[in-house]
Amino acid sequence: MADVAETKSVDIAEKAPPAEAPAAEPEAKNGDAQKEPAPAAEEGGDFSKQERAIIRQVEYYFGDANLNRDKFLREQIAKTEDGWVPLSVLVTFKRLASLSTDLAEIVAALNKSEEGLVQISEDKESLRRHPERPIPEHNEERRKEIQERTAYAKGFPLESQMSELLDFCSSYDKVVNLTMRKHYDKPTKSYKFKGSIFLTFETKDQAKAFLDQDKITYKERELLRKWQVDYLKEKQEEYALKNEKRKNKKEAAKVEPPIELPKNAIVVFEGAPETVTREEIREAFEKVKDFEIAYIEFNKGDTKGSVRLTEADAAEKYIAKVEEGKLKFNDEVTLTLRKATEEEEKEFLDKAVEFMKKRRDFTRNKNKRFNNRKRHGGHDHKHGSKKSRKD
Questions:
Q1: Please, which residues have CB within 8 angstroms of residue 287's CB and are 6 or more apart in sequence?
Q2: pTM here?
Q3: Are 118 and 128 in contact, with CB atoms under 8 Å apart?
Q4: pLDDT in tens, 251-283
Q5: CB proximity list for 251: less than 8 A, separation 6 or greater
Q6: Which residues neighbour 84 within 8 Å (Cβ) at sequence distance 6 or greater?
Q7: CA angle, corner 100, sides to 97 and 104, nearest 5?
Q8: Measured distance CA(35)–CA(22) in Å, rounded
């Protein structure tokens, strides 16, 4: 009898192992595990639709897929030496309760099952997995074996119900596990069907027969089909590519753009009075119109300094504007101007770039500290500390 689950995850099912290999998911805390079980499809049979649904649901609970991750049910089984679980416990499970809570009806349905997976106690009040059907060890080898007989199918309407998908699966031999792949929809705070399923067959040949068909449609929609291992590999490659792009984007954001300063824009002056200030130098240079000063390198007490203009090749143009390369500082003092040599320009620009980098780093770190203080309470924390000391 088929084991069935609905996958519920925050859009992570694409990179998860197959439904019948749920060891990679958190253990369930009760009989209705994180992948909600649902009745699986069954061919023919001399029983009603209701009985068929009950059989499938109970056999799902005791099936390989569910018991591998259902911590609550395993604890119930371990409570008795022979592994009997009271029906009164099982009918508290959501999906079985939605079908029936009548113990007699459940027992009557299970008596018609030919699967041989579930045994009924003599008093008809408890069930257990048949002792001759031990749970397979869920290791990496088994996970791979399950993947090799699991198919992926996409193209189902988003409003599809589990019961409809089970009916669809009933025509294929033999589906032992069906997983509706879902994602968490934040706006509605609910899980939504993604339109794709995983189908685990009893054998790899049965899965291959499903995939080898030329065309399979569901409600006039052609389904995309492939092996689950191929689908997961494609998704892993897709995620790796996205992560690489994201990483490269972050790395690119970390790279600081180079600081480029204009060349041939430094005017060297000599003959300044020892008492002159940087501001007075600026006022003297600004007497020549149409030039913008970027930076002045000068210390009070020096007689020589440099002025960097904002535009490239501006040094010679500036000097040409003053008579004989002489800039009148005042009635008594005239500054001698010349264009900086290549060596002087390189030294000046290197120092300027280094200074600008330090200033940029200081500003960035200052902003980080400010933002961190805001996130952690900022001034409130500081004031609180003062108050504590005062108290």
A1: 327, 328
A2: 0.54
A3: yes
A4: 777 777 788 899 999 999 999 998 899 999 999
A5: none
A6: 121, 126, 127, 128
A7: 125
A8: 9
